[in-house]
Fold this protein.
Amino acid sequence: MPPTITAFANSPDRGRGQARDMRVRWALEEVGQPYDVRLVSFEEMKAPGHLALHPFGQIPTFEDGDVTMFETGAIVLHIAERNDGLLPKDASARARAIAWMFAALNTLEPPIIELGMATLLERDESWYEERLPILRDRVCVRLDELSRHLGGADWLDGAFSAGDLLMVTVLRRLGASRILGDYPTLSSYVARGEARPAFRRAFDAQLAVFTAASAG
Ligand code: GTB
């Protein structure tokens, strides 16, 4: 039996690959592992059946035999540890790749999400115009540092790894803000990730869900 992940039945991002099931799909595609998808509505995500899999009532979840998991970082690490292709074999290089996974989720993602949430939900607040540049600056500090680290390299540390996979998905969240346009090194890095055949397959699969939902 292939693993089963959950994803939005009706993703609010209209199939732009922003929902976090995209990371897990991409990781599974990179390692050549077929998977099933169970689509859930917002109501189903908050019902006891789904809460038994995900205590916060979110997507994605991952079920594989007797393993049931939530949290995309943990799921991608689990996939990477059990298959070839997403983590180097050398112990030091492997540790560094895992550090980049955590950096993507703990250092880059929080300010990026905070900026995204502010532009989405706080536009009408009296303090919005004052707060926005502060949030943008926090993102730019990290992008400056990441861009400097990447320099002319294709990937964060040698060959493509689960660290790059997570980092690219995190940076893609900046799409709407146009900030990435000021960082050609990072724009090219994201484009390199998006050009990978496994990314394309994962993207097309989640887009097909949205296309089918809008047709029906
Ligand atoms: N830390 C968890 C992880 O990495 O697995 C976060 C999981 C998470 O945030 N899941 C979101 C969810 O289920 C979907 S991905 N939300 C429903 C809820 O909390 O009730 C976040 C997301 C949603 C929508 C867009 N979008 O429309 O662009 C992008 C990302």
